[in-house]
Amino acid sequence: MTPEKKVLFVKIGLGLIVASMLVGYTYVWVQWVDLEAARESALILNNYYRARHGSAPLTRNADLDMIAQMCALYYRDYVPGGSIDHSCPYWRSGYNFYFSEGIGECGGGSPTGSPEHLWTNIEIGEGNTWMLYKEIYNYNFSNFKTDLETHPRTVLHFTQVVWRESKYFGLGMTTYRSKKGIGMVATLFYYPSGNLITDDWAHFLMNVRPVLKDAPALEGWKKQY
């Protein structure tokens, strides 16, 4: 082989390496952009719902985003169908290094199906937020103690969304495969955690307030359910 051919093969090899690196970096960048879109859309809708109840807006937190993403991957890998059973260890108080108090964990997914019929990442952020908030229809503000004692699982996602003392928000998201096709699982984290239960239920009375009289009507995702 002539020296010229050796140089040519080296250049081709280097070109292929650079091309593969660019493809890899582009994929990672696109995934990050999609995830950021879901996080921002979920944050905006969370704060829209919170404002209806007089709760201050949440702020994105990078550590919560990271823990939420770890839990989304955990549910994909260890829980059948990517369902949220709150078994992820990373968010529990005392296990993670970032938060001294508990983190409120909520979650959900998108309809499972073929790629062309999946929700977009923005719809994942908005849709899962709405699925949590729509539990407001199960919550009786004048008799909430009965709701919390008899059917807590049908209201505690809503109460976490509007919980006044929660200040920070994070979201994780990933895909999973099943016999029905491709689905997505999302985990939404809040800090400090809501749903603090005491004998007198005082925390719920202070943190979960009725809709304000001048609050805007529900729009957007409400129309899709």
UniProtKB/TrEMBL annotation:
Pfam families: CAP. Residues 37-198 form the SCP domain. The chain crosses the membrane at residues 7-30. InterPro entries: CAP_dom, CAP_sf, CRISP-related. SMART domains: SCP (SM00198). Keywords: Membrane, Transmembrane, Transmembrane helix. This is Golgi-associated plant pathogenesis-related protein 1.
